Amino acid sequence: MRLVARGPQSDHGVPIKRIYRMADLSRLEPSLRPSSFHDASYDSMIETCIREVLEQEAPILDKVLVDRIARAHGFKRSGRLICERVLEVAERHYHFQPDPEPEHGPFVWLAADDPGRWNIYRVPEREADVRFIEELAPEEIIAAARSIPSGDAAVEIARAFGIRRLSNSAKDRLMKVLGACGC
Question: Per-residue pLDDT tens for 127-151?
């Protein structure tokens, strides 16, 4: 049985803690054809890669999704053309939800009803899996906030996600998300 990163509400609204790890696309490597990346005939392979990343990591910041697909294809940079290509395919199949802070970009979810049901926060499996605060969907931050004891919420949330040093901008983002939900 494969675990998908969807977040159904628990029976009692208690947040669920899970492990987060960066998507592993190695099983797709034999099928990847970087030279065909921009061909319309390659849409289904890009969609397969996107689904694989989303099943392992959703919700994921759109820029991070693009980077995962680009790196799997051996591209060192995710320029405008690669970004447009990946997002154009993703927008046909998956749900994009704007972040309350538009400068960060939207988060990509498997399905449109996932954000409303989300009650999960994911802690990094190892150091390489630590995400930046900007890469955390508001729903995941809120789930973490509901699971921590009272105290300095921003610091405790950052620690839950494996972040050792909390910048002022990251703390501001956390406080905006928590303020918006009344946490």
Answer: 999 999 999 999 999 999 998 877 6
Region of 16 please: left (phi>0), alpha (psi -120 to 50) or beta.
Answer: beta
pLDDT in tens, 152-177: 789 999 999 999 999 999 999 999 99
In terms of Cα–Cα distance, which of 59, 56, 69 is closest to 19?
A: 56
Report the distance separating Cα 159 and Cα 182, nearest Å: 21
Where is 108: in which H helix or E strand?
strand 107-109
Residue 65 CB partners (closer than 8 Å, separation 6+): 50, 53, 54, 57, 86, 87, 90, 108
Tokens of 92: 């046909």
What tokens does 181 get?
């939900």
Q: Helices in 17-167 by DSSP H: which ranges?
A: 43-57, 62-72, 80-93, 114-117, 138-147, 153-160
Name the β-bridge partners of 97: 107
Token duo for residue 153: 């919420």
Cα dihedral 76/3/97/9 (nearest 10): -150
